[in-house]
Design goal:
Blueprint: H1 2-11, H2 15-21, H3 27-44, E1 54-55, E2 58-59, H4 60-84, H5 95-101, E3 107-108, E4 111-112, H6 113-131, H7 142-170, H8 177-197, H9 199-223, H10 225-235, H11 252-263, E5 267-270, H12 275-284, H13 286-291, E6 294-296, H14 310-315, E7 322-325, E8 328-331, H15 336-343
Parallel strand pairs: 5-6
Antiparallel strand pairs: 1-2, 3-4, 5-7, 7-8
């Protein structure tokens, strides 16, 4: 045993020789290396904030807020006209545009249709501002705002499609600039919302969109069911031509202007059943109305089986009354000032009425 212990003691190198071959570890270098290795994965693993969808370089939320504000202004103006009873300024369509805006289809559940439009456009504007980070609706999360915005724009697009169908079937041949503008806004907001949400999420809510569209169509159809039955009865009604008595007496100005209009070949196209045409004649008075070159577009009556006179159809009449003065077409009722300006009438005693 003693010999074995001596052998081991002799064969084992001293610790000082081992330490000399392996220098001591630099603890500072180790610490620095460990910190660096732990810091790099955390910086690379941080998720980048998602990019907001944009259209032509402008965020979709900004587009939605802007278009919603335009729709709010338009429907606010039409709502004011409804409650005040004033006539709308129709740049295109003239009297036919006013007829559409004042028809039975301009109300829903007994309230003016523009009022509902003002509410939904205002909601779209607020929801879009919420998504852009304005936080105008406290307590409403981004996910909830996107869901409500999708449901709102889906309802708007469905209603606009329904009203375009009504306009093309019940008011064939008429033009309503406000109706068309609102439809463009509604469809634009709908497609912008779809772009913002993305295809993957749309697949998850397409069933809900179909349900919303069905509810809107059903509600509108039930609301207008009584109007449809009333209008279908009018389509079968035949009106025989009649003449409305003009009770107002013509002023010297009306007589002078009527003679001037006739001398230059100006024509007034109208229909015997048109209230606006009768009001235009009342403005001129009995004597002056007889001087005007008036063209009756339904000399044989109106209704089922009756057609517009060829000379009126050739002009492309869209509503009544329509004035044709020196190749200028004026739609709707016109005051003396507008007729004088279009016809080049000059009178020192002229006072617009």
């Amino acid at each position: 045993m003693a010999s074995i212990s001596v052998a081991l003691a002799v064969s084992r190198p001293p610790l000082s020789r081992i330490a000399a071959r392996f220098p001591p570890c630099d603890q500072r270098a180790v610490r620095v290396w460990r910190i660096r290795c732990r810091a790099e994965p955390s910086s690379q693993g941080e998720p980048e904030p998602p990019l907001e969808p944009s259209l032509w370089g402008i965020p979709t939320s900004t587009w939605s807020a802007g278009l919603g504000a335009l729709g709010f202004l338009e429907t606010g103006y039409l709502t004011y006209l409804k409650f005040s009873g004033a006539e709308a300024f129709c740049p295109v369509g003239g009297a036919s545009c006013s007829d559409v805006l004042n028809s039975d289809y301009s109300s829903v559940f007994g309230l003016p249709l523009p009022l509902f439009g003002m509410l939904v456009y205002g909601s779209v504007t607020l929801l879009s501002l919420q998504q852009s980070g304005k936080n105008v609706l406290s307590g409403l999360g981004d996910t909830d705002a996107r869901f409500i915005l999708l449901a709102t724009t889906t309802s708007m697009a469905t209603a606009s499609a329904y009203f375009l169908y009504i306009l093309s079937t019940k008011f064939a041949g008429t033009t309503c600039s406000y109706c068309l503008f609102s439809a463009v806004l509604s469809f634009s907001l709908f497609f912008i919302t779809l772009k913002e949400i993305g295809i993957e999420e749309i697949r998850n809510v397409v069933a809900l969109q179909l349900v919303i569209a069905g509810v809107v169509i059903t509600a509108l159809t039930n609301t207008y069911s009584m109007s449809d039955s009333h209008l279908s009865g009018l389509n079968d009604l035949t009106l025989e031509p009649y003449e409305t008595e003009i009770t107002n007496q013509s002023s010297p100005m009306a007589l002078s202007l009527a003679k001037h209009l006739r001398s230059i070949g100006a024509k007034m196209y109208g229909a015997f059943w048109c209230s606006h045409c009768n009001e235009q004649k009342q403005m001129f008075g009995r004597e002056a109305a007889k001087i005007l070159n008036y063209v009756e577009c339904f000399p044989d009556g109106a209704g089922k089986g009756k057609k517009m006179a060829l000379q009126c159809a050739a002009v492309g009449i869209e509503g009544f009354p329509t004035w044709v003065i020196k190749d200028k077409i004026l739609s709707g009722e016109q005051n003396f000032e507008a007729l004088a300006e279009a016809s080049g009438y000059v009178d020192e005693d002229f006072r617009p009425s």
